[in-house]
User: What shape does this take?
Amino acid sequence: MNFTALQTNGLKLMLSIAQKSNGAPVQAPVLAKFENLKVGYVGKILFKLRKGGLIQAVRGKNGGYSLSRNGTEISVFDVLKALEVKEFDNQVCPNVRKNNPCAHSLDCALRPVMQSIDHYIEKLTSSISLTDLIQDEKEMVGQLQQMGM
Assistant: This one.
């Protein structure tokens, strides 16, 4: 399963905010430079994250963006959900999505497989917080192994 560039970059920005803020807001140009992204694109992502209730904007000279809640309360799934174009699509077949006739639309063995994959991804990403992602890679591998992943 692939995530969009928007979701991947949004996760990186959320992690950067969690790591760099130290209680103070982080400005969009700082985030853009650190992640090697264009400021306008970062602004678009930050707008969606703010609209999703994950970050808050602080105006003024020392303004910027900070997490709206503690990093332990924001899951990877929360970020992915805030940045997706539409709901997770449980219907893999484009014919079913468009209500076009399909030989498998009434009895499709692939549909429950895709639904199970979506459920698995949601369960996994809901159990990983931003604070979990601050640890180093080796520790994250250990945590995932403890979770049976």
